[in-house]
Amino acid sequence: MFKHLLVPTDGSALSEAALRMAVALAKENNARITGLYMVRPFHMTVYSAEMVGSDQADLQSVDRARAEQYLENMRSIATAAGVECDTEAPTGAHPYEAILDTAKARHCDLIVMASHGHGGIRGLLLGSETQKVLTHSHLPILVVRPPE
């Protein structure tokens, strides 16, 4: 049925639950997974670098390190289950576009994602982004919701 699943993450617990569901589905279907974490550019329009103690390059470097940590966790979970997993960490301003572009470029046939992500800025990755993916995707999407 499905042979290549795209699993976007923001590192939240619900994103990890989506990953675990995707891994189980991939294992059952002899499919592979591509994990995705989008590194967002930091725009310092209100505060100067001196005011916040970091510059844009430092902040982006921290987010890149966070991306690698989350993606390594994804690879570890998939590998432990015997599922092939590669990962990608593009930089962009709109997570839903990165999700759709990656799904198309990698020839994915299913997107598995959490209904909501972290609060605050990270909350932008999912929630409203999930709605945008649902609206614009031509692929089936499995949305993982939190337990009641």
UniProtKB/TrEMBL annotation:
**InterPro entries for this protein:** Rossmann-like_a/b/a_fold, Universal_stress_UspA, UspA
Which keywords does this Swiss-Prot/TrEMBL entry list? Cytoplasm
Location of the protein in the cell: Cytoplasm
Query: What start-end ranges are recorded for coiled-coil regions in this protein?
Result: none
- Is Membrane found in the keyword set? no
One GO CC annotation = cytoplasm
Gene3D superfamilies attached to this UniProt entry: HUPs
Q: Determine if Cytoplasm is one of this entry's keywords.
A: yes
- Give start and end of each UspA domain: 1-145
The organism's superkingdom is given as Bacteria
Q: State the similarity comment.
A: Belongs to the universal stress protein A family.
Q: Which protein, by its recorded name, is this?
A: Universal stress protein
